[in-house]
Amino acid sequence: MKGKNQYLLNFVLIPDPDACIIYLFLIICDLNSTIQMKSYYIRQGDKRQGPYSIEQLKQMQISPAMQVWTQGLKEWMNAGEIPKLQQTLFSTATVSETNNGHLNSSTEKESAAGKNWKTIVAVAALFVTAILIFKLQDSPIEFPKVDTLEAETVDQSVKPPARAEKSIKEKEMNDPAAYIKAKTSWHKNLIGETVLTGSLLNTSALTSFKNPVLLVTWISKTNTVIGTSRYPIYEMLKPKKSIQYKLKVKAPYKYADVNVSVESAKFVK
Questions:
Q1: What's the Cα-to-Cα distance from 48 to each of 44, 55, 98, rounded to whole Å?
Q2: Could you tell me which CATH number the domain at 171-268 has?
Protein backbone atom coordinates (compact mmCIF):
# COMPACT_ATOMS: atom_id res chain seq x y z
CA MET A 1 0.00 0.00 0.00
CA LYS A 2 1.27 3.50 -0.77
CA GLY A 3 2.06 5.79 2.14
CA LYS A 4 -0.93 7.44 3.79
CA ASN A 5 0.68 10.89 3.75
CA GLN A 6 1.48 10.61 0.00
CA TYR A 7 -2.16 9.81 -0.79
CA LEU A 8 -3.44 12.77 1.21
CA LEU A 9 -0.83 15.16 -0.24
CA ASN A 10 -1.69 14.19 -3.83
CA PHE A 11 -5.39 14.58 -3.09
CA VAL A 12 -5.00 18.10 -1.67
CA LEU A 13 -2.88 19.26 -4.62
CA ILE A 14 -5.62 18.39 -7.16
CA PRO A 15 -7.63 21.60 -7.76
CA ASP A 16 -10.45 20.22 -9.89
CA PRO A 17 -13.37 18.52 -8.00
CA ASP A 18 -13.92 16.07 -10.87
CA ALA A 19 -10.32 14.98 -10.73
CA CYS A 20 -10.58 14.76 -6.92
CA ILE A 21 -13.46 12.31 -7.19
CA ILE A 22 -11.62 10.21 -9.77
CA TYR A 23 -8.47 10.17 -7.68
CA LEU A 24 -10.48 9.29 -4.59
CA PHE A 25 -12.05 6.39 -6.49
CA LEU A 26 -8.57 5.14 -7.39
CA ILE A 27 -7.47 5.39 -3.74
CA ILE A 28 -10.45 3.32 -2.60
CA CYS A 29 -9.87 0.73 -5.33
CA ASP A 30 -6.19 0.45 -4.41
CA LEU A 31 -7.07 0.21 -0.72
CA ASN A 32 -9.67 -2.46 -1.41
CA SER A 33 -7.29 -4.49 -3.57
CA THR A 34 -4.61 -4.27 -0.87
CA ILE A 35 -7.02 -5.41 1.80
CA GLN A 36 -8.14 -8.35 -0.32
CA MET A 37 -4.61 -9.22 -1.43
CA LYS A 38 -3.55 -10.87 1.81
CA SER A 39 -6.44 -11.21 4.21
CA TYR A 40 -7.03 -14.95 4.70
CA TYR A 41 -5.54 -17.07 7.48
CA ILE A 42 -5.54 -20.87 7.68
CA ARG A 43 -5.33 -23.12 10.73
CA GLN A 44 -4.01 -26.66 10.99
CA GLY A 45 -4.43 -27.99 14.53
CA ASP A 46 -3.11 -25.21 16.80
CA LYS A 47 -0.86 -23.71 14.10
CA ARG A 48 -2.06 -20.53 12.40
CA GLN A 49 -0.57 -19.40 9.08
CA GLY A 50 -1.09 -16.35 6.90
CA PRO A 51 -2.13 -13.92 5.71
CA TYR A 52 -2.67 -15.30 2.20
CA SER A 53 -4.36 -13.84 -0.83
CA ILE A 54 -7.05 -15.76 -2.68
CA GLU A 55 -4.58 -16.41 -5.47
CA GLN A 56 -2.09 -17.90 -2.98
CA LEU A 57 -4.80 -20.12 -1.50
CA LYS A 58 -5.63 -21.28 -5.01
CA GLN A 59 -1.99 -22.19 -5.64
CA MET A 60 -1.83 -24.04 -2.29
CA GLN A 61 -4.82 -26.15 -3.40
CA ILE A 62 -6.43 -26.10 0.03
CA SER A 63 -9.34 -28.45 0.66
CA PRO A 64 -12.91 -27.26 1.37
CA ALA A 65 -12.48 -28.62 4.93
CA MET A 66 -9.48 -26.36 5.66
CA GLN A 67 -10.15 -23.99 8.58
CA VAL A 68 -10.02 -20.38 7.31
CA TRP A 69 -10.59 -16.99 8.93
CA THR A 70 -10.69 -13.43 7.62
CA GLN A 71 -11.77 -10.16 9.10
CA GLY A 72 -15.52 -10.03 9.40
CA LEU A 73 -15.92 -13.66 10.49
CA LYS A 74 -16.82 -14.40 14.12
CA GLU A 75 -15.12 -17.80 14.12
CA TRP A 76 -12.96 -20.11 12.04
CA MET A 77 -14.92 -21.70 9.18
CA ASN A 78 -14.33 -24.37 6.56
CA ALA A 79 -13.04 -22.84 3.34
CA GLY A 80 -15.93 -24.40 1.41
CA GLU A 81 -18.44 -22.56 3.61
CA ILE A 82 -17.07 -19.08 2.81
CA PRO A 83 -18.95 -17.78 -0.28
CA LYS A 84 -15.99 -15.86 -1.71
CA LEU A 85 -13.68 -18.87 -1.50
CA GLN A 86 -16.40 -21.28 -2.61
CA GLN A 87 -16.93 -19.33 -5.82
CA THR A 88 -13.23 -18.75 -6.49
CA LEU A 89 -11.56 -21.99 -5.38
CA PHE A 90 -14.17 -24.73 -5.44
CA SER A 91 -16.77 -23.76 -8.08
CA THR A 92 -16.62 -25.62 -11.40
CA ALA A 93 -17.56 -22.47 -13.24
CA THR A 94 -15.10 -19.62 -13.25
CA VAL A 95 -16.59 -16.56 -11.67
CA SER A 96 -15.40 -13.48 -13.45
CA GLU A 97 -15.72 -10.14 -11.82
CA THR A 98 -15.58 -7.15 -14.04
CA ASN A 99 -15.56 -3.60 -12.92
CA ASN A 100 -17.02 -1.43 -15.64
CA GLY A 101 -16.07 2.08 -14.70
CA HIS A 102 -17.82 4.60 -16.77
CA LEU A 103 -15.76 7.71 -16.18
CA ASN A 104 -16.77 9.97 -19.02
CA SER A 105 -14.82 13.20 -19.17
CA SER A 106 -17.10 16.10 -19.76
CA THR A 107 -16.26 18.49 -22.57
CA GLU A 108 -18.53 21.19 -21.20
CA LYS A 109 -17.86 23.29 -18.14
CA GLU A 110 -20.18 22.67 -15.26
CA SER A 111 -21.83 25.33 -13.28
CA ALA A 112 -20.29 26.76 -10.12
CA ALA A 113 -23.00 25.18 -7.97
CA GLY A 114 -22.22 21.72 -9.38
CA LYS A 115 -18.52 22.13 -8.67
CA ASN A 116 -19.18 23.19 -5.08
CA TRP A 117 -21.37 20.13 -4.51
CA LYS A 118 -18.69 17.80 -5.89
CA THR A 119 -16.06 19.51 -3.75
CA ILE A 120 -18.09 18.91 -0.57
CA VAL A 121 -18.60 15.25 -1.47
CA ALA A 122 -14.90 14.82 -2.28
CA VAL A 123 -13.78 16.38 1.04
CA ALA A 124 -16.20 14.24 3.04
CA ALA A 125 -15.03 11.11 1.25
CA LEU A 126 -11.43 12.15 1.92
CA PHE A 127 -12.01 12.13 5.67
CA VAL A 128 -13.74 8.76 5.53
CA THR A 129 -10.92 7.29 3.46
CA ALA A 130 -8.24 8.71 5.76
CA ILE A 131 -9.94 7.24 8.85
CA LEU A 132 -10.29 3.87 7.10
CA ILE A 133 -6.60 3.84 6.10
CA PHE A 134 -5.41 4.68 9.64
CA LYS A 135 -7.73 2.12 11.21
CA LEU A 136 -6.68 -0.69 8.87
CA GLN A 137 -2.98 -0.06 9.34
CA ASP A 138 -2.93 0.63 13.08
CA SER A 139 -5.51 -1.77 14.54
CA PRO A 140 -4.24 -5.26 15.48
CA ILE A 141 -5.94 -8.33 14.05
CA GLU A 142 -7.98 -10.20 16.66
CA PHE A 143 -8.35 -13.87 15.82
CA PRO A 144 -11.29 -15.89 17.21
CA LYS A 145 -10.52 -18.11 20.17
CA VAL A 146 -9.94 -21.76 19.39
CA ASP A 147 -11.20 -24.51 21.67
CA THR A 148 -8.09 -26.31 22.96
CA LEU A 149 -9.90 -29.62 22.79
CA GLU A 150 -10.43 -29.09 19.06
CA ALA A 151 -6.95 -27.77 18.30
CA GLU A 152 -4.99 -30.52 19.97
CA THR A 153 -5.34 -34.04 21.40
CA VAL A 154 -4.81 -34.24 25.14
CA ASP A 155 -2.10 -36.73 26.07
CA GLN A 156 -3.02 -38.35 29.37
CA SER A 157 0.55 -39.57 29.81
CA VAL A 158 2.07 -36.07 29.85
CA LYS A 159 4.50 -35.73 32.73
CA PRO A 160 3.69 -33.24 35.53
CA PRO A 161 5.80 -30.06 35.92
CA ALA A 162 9.25 -30.51 37.47
CA ARG A 163 8.24 -29.04 40.84
CA ALA A 164 5.14 -31.23 41.15
CA GLU A 165 7.10 -34.26 39.98
CA LYS A 166 9.71 -33.71 42.69
CA SER A 167 7.02 -33.40 45.36
CA ILE A 168 5.31 -36.62 44.23
CA LYS A 169 8.56 -38.57 44.15
CA GLU A 170 9.58 -37.38 47.63
CA LYS A 171 6.24 -38.53 49.00
CA GLU A 172 6.60 -41.97 47.40
CA MET A 173 10.19 -42.42 48.62
CA ASN A 174 9.23 -41.58 52.21
CA ASP A 175 6.72 -44.44 52.46
CA PRO A 176 7.46 -47.24 49.95
CA ALA A 177 5.28 -49.82 51.70
CA ALA A 178 2.18 -47.68 51.16
CA TYR A 179 2.63 -47.95 47.37
CA ILE A 180 3.22 -51.73 47.11
CA LYS A 181 0.09 -53.89 47.17
CA ALA A 182 0.34 -57.62 47.87
CA LYS A 183 -2.04 -60.38 46.77
CA THR A 184 -1.31 -63.79 48.27
CA SER A 185 -2.70 -67.31 48.39
CA TRP A 186 -1.27 -70.25 50.34
CA HIS A 187 -1.40 -74.03 50.48
CA LYS A 188 0.50 -76.99 51.86
CA ASN A 189 2.41 -79.23 49.51
CA LEU A 190 2.69 -83.03 49.69
CA ILE A 191 5.47 -82.95 52.27
CA GLY A 192 3.66 -80.51 54.54
CA GLU A 193 5.51 -77.31 53.61
CA THR A 194 3.56 -74.06 53.47
CA VAL A 195 3.79 -72.43 50.05
CA LEU A 196 2.96 -68.73 49.58
CA THR A 197 2.27 -67.53 46.04
CA GLY A 198 1.10 -64.15 44.88
CA SER A 199 1.94 -60.83 43.25
CA LEU A 200 3.28 -57.42 44.25
CA LEU A 201 2.06 -54.28 42.43
CA ASN A 202 3.91 -50.94 42.55
CA THR A 203 1.15 -48.29 42.45
CA SER A 204 3.52 -45.30 42.56
CA ALA A 205 3.62 -42.87 39.64
CA LEU A 206 7.35 -42.14 39.45
CA THR A 207 9.39 -44.23 41.90
CA SER A 208 10.90 -47.69 41.49
CA PHE A 209 11.40 -49.91 44.53
CA LYS A 210 13.58 -52.95 45.22
CA ASN A 211 13.87 -55.75 47.78
CA PRO A 212 10.41 -55.47 49.34
CA VAL A 213 10.05 -57.27 52.68
CA LEU A 214 6.89 -59.32 53.20
CA LEU A 215 5.37 -59.38 56.66
CA VAL A 216 3.57 -62.74 57.12
CA THR A 217 1.10 -62.93 59.98
CA TRP A 218 -0.01 -66.41 61.17
CA ILE A 219 -3.58 -66.62 62.47
CA SER A 220 -5.25 -69.34 64.53
CA LYS A 221 -8.74 -70.81 64.24
CA THR A 222 -9.92 -68.30 66.85
CA ASN A 223 -8.60 -65.42 64.73
CA THR A 224 -5.70 -64.87 67.09
CA VAL A 225 -2.24 -63.84 65.91
CA ILE A 226 0.12 -66.65 66.85
CA GLY A 227 3.25 -65.33 65.15
CA THR A 228 4.85 -63.24 62.41
CA SER A 229 7.63 -63.85 59.90
CA ARG A 230 9.51 -61.63 57.45
CA TYR A 231 10.71 -62.61 54.00
CA PRO A 232 12.59 -60.32 51.58
CA ILE A 233 11.85 -60.54 47.85
CA TYR A 234 14.98 -59.62 45.89
CA GLU A 235 13.27 -58.11 42.88
CA MET A 236 12.85 -54.69 41.24
CA LEU A 237 9.43 -53.05 41.13
CA LYS A 238 9.00 -50.33 38.49
CA PRO A 239 6.13 -47.78 38.63
CA LYS A 240 2.75 -49.29 37.69
CA LYS A 241 4.35 -52.73 37.23
CA SER A 242 3.86 -55.99 39.13
CA ILE A 243 5.94 -59.11 39.83
CA GLN A 244 5.06 -62.68 40.83
CA TYR A 245 6.59 -64.49 43.81
CA LYS A 246 6.56 -67.96 45.33
CA LEU A 247 7.91 -68.85 48.79
CA LYS A 248 8.23 -72.09 50.75
CA VAL A 249 8.19 -71.08 54.39
CA LYS A 250 8.29 -72.63 57.85
CA ALA A 251 4.94 -72.07 59.53
CA PRO A 252 4.01 -72.27 63.24
CA TYR A 253 2.07 -75.24 64.52
CA LYS A 254 -1.71 -75.32 64.00
CA TYR A 255 -2.20 -72.07 62.12
CA ALA A 256 -5.51 -71.62 60.24
CA ASP A 257 -4.89 -68.62 57.98
CA VAL A 258 -2.18 -66.33 56.66
CA ASN A 259 -2.15 -62.57 56.13
CA VAL A 260 0.61 -61.07 53.93
CA SER A 261 1.51 -57.36 53.63
CA VAL A 262 4.57 -55.33 52.61
CA GLU A 263 6.48 -54.04 55.60
CA SER A 264 9.23 -52.10 53.82
CA ALA A 265 11.17 -51.59 50.61
CA LYS A 266 14.06 -49.53 49.27
CA PHE A 267 13.53 -46.85 46.69
CA VAL A 268 15.70 -46.59 43.61
CA LYS A 269 17.16 -43.17 42.83
A1: 7, 19, 33
A2: 2.60.40.1620
